[in-house]
């Protein structure tokens, strides 16, 4: 082994690091796998139907094909921090097994990634719920989480 090099640093200037733009960690809530339809309404009023991949109390991950992605995210690139694409998500959750309730939540597209050749996942962070929407989602997610805990 060679000798360790000795580097003098007394004449080196200090360099201040530039702050890095970063996305906040949106994974602060547990997600549950859900298979159901969701209607996404864009700001211009047009509606698209996709599938729910997973759901949490603070957001929803939807699965859709490339044609739908082009309509939702025209640039087809994951949104950069500070750039929001406002949408409204409309879906049903079975709070009572025989009686699903509708949930309408306003939010923003905050994430996008390609899963397969013609399948994409789009992450929507909820900002506001109509009526008791948050309570319905909270109860449904809690129920699914508790039932998955008992199976393991």
From TrEMBL:
InterPro entries: PilZ_domain
Source species: Marinobacter lipolyticus SM19
Molecular function per GO: cyclic-di-GMP binding
Name the record gives this protein: Type IV pilus assembly PilZ
PilZ domain location: 26-141
Pfam family, one: PilZ
């Amino acid at each position: 082994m060679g000798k360790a090099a000795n580097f003098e640093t007394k004449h080196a200037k200090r360099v201040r690091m530039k702050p890095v733009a970063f996305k906040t960690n949106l994974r602060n809530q547990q997600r549950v796998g859900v298979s159901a339809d969701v209607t996404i309404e864009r700001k211009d009023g047009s509606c698209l139907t996709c599938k729910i991949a997973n759901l949490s109390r603070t957001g929803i991950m939807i699965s859709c094909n490339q044609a739908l992605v082009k309509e939702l995210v025209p640039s087809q690139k994951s949104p950069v921090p500070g750039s929001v694409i406002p949408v409204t998500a409309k879906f049903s959750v079975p709070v009572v097994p025989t009686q699903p309730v509708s949930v309408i939540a306003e939010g923003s597209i905050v994430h996008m990634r390609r899963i397969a050749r013609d399948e994409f996942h789009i992450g929507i962070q909820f900002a506001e719920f109509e009526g008791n929407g948050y309570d319905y989602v909270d109860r449904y997610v809690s129920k699914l989480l508790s039932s998955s805990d008992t199976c393991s």
